[in-house]
């Protein structure tokens, strides 16, 4: 019995939708739009082009080659952080800077964000080295033999160096069954 009731309701809904569709077809604006659509589809078929091509021709700046809209990202602003404890200065556009992460871990994120140097503020002169000192050091180092560069790389925070002769945990070894 419930199937009969749902059938009758759907039939009534279908009649209602057909009535709305007929009233929409009588609307002059919809008739113009449908006529335009039909003519455009006929032209596309005549010249053998698809919708993506038509959109590229009509609005090339809005659509890229794959048919999606282009999204341009605003470049990030350079931030300069000055550590008042050590006098170090870090310039970065992102938050993935190694030294900046260490500072945040050590001093806290809010504290480190307070170390951002504005364009109007300058680094304290007593902390910043005088420009003459590094030049003198460079001359001394140039007269010495060049120091041997270390090939050892720094490991990320929290990683321990592997002992010599260390083998990976998972190493491929052919099983005895595979040789049969």
Question: How would you characterize this protein structure?
Answer:
The chain has 180 residues and is mainly alpha-helical. Among the domains are: 2-58, no CATH class; 79-130, no CATH class. Helices cover 44% and strands 4% of the residues. The protein has a two-stranded antiparallel ribbon with strand order 1-2. The radius of gyration is 36 Å and the shape is elongated. The two termini are 67 Å apart. The model is unreliable at 120-142 (pLDDT under 50).
Summary, kept brief:
With 180 residues, the chain is mostly helical. It contains 6 helices and 2 strands.
The portion of residues forming beta strands comes to: under 5%
Spatial order of the strands in the main sheet? Answer: 1-2
Separate helix tally: 6
Structural class: mainly alpha
Helix content: 40-55%
Rg measurement, Å: 36 Å
Quote the average pLDDT. Answer: 76
**What is the first-to-last residue Cα distance?**
67 Å
Number of strands: 2
Helices and strands, in order, run as HHHEEHHH
From the spread of the alpha carbons, the general shape counts as: elongated
Major sheet: 2 strands, antiparallel
Uncertain stretches of 5 or more adjacent residues: 120-142
Key words describing this protein structure:
44% helix; 4% strand; elongated; 180 residues
Tell me the layout of helices and strands.
Layout: H1 2-25, H2 28-47, H3 51-58, E1 79-82, E2 89-92, H4 98-107, H5 109-113, H6 132-143
Antiparallel strand pairs: 1-2
């Amino acid at each position: 019995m419930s199937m009969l009731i749902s059938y009758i309701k759907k039939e009534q809904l279908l009649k209602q939708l057909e009535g709305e569709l007929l009233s929409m077809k009588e609307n002059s604006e919809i008739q113009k739009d449908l006529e335009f659509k039909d003519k455009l589809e006929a032209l596309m078929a005549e010249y053998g082009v698809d919708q993506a091509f038509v959109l590229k021709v009509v609005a090339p700046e809005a659509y890229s080659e794959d048919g999606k809209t282009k999204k341009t990202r605003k470049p990030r602003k350079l931030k300069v952080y000055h550590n008042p404890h050590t006098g170090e200065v870090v310039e970065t556009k992102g938050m993935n800077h190694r030294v900046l992460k260490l500072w945040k871990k050590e001093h806290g994120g809010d504290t480190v964000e307070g170390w951002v140097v504005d364009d109007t503020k300058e680094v304290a002169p007593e902390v910043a080295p005088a420009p003459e000192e590094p030049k003198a050091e460079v001359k001394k180092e140039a007269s010495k033999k060049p120091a041997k560069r270390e090939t050892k790389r720094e490991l990320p925070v929290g990683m321990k160096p592997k002992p010599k002769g260390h083998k990976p945990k998972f190493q491929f070894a052919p099983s005895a069954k595979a040789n049969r």
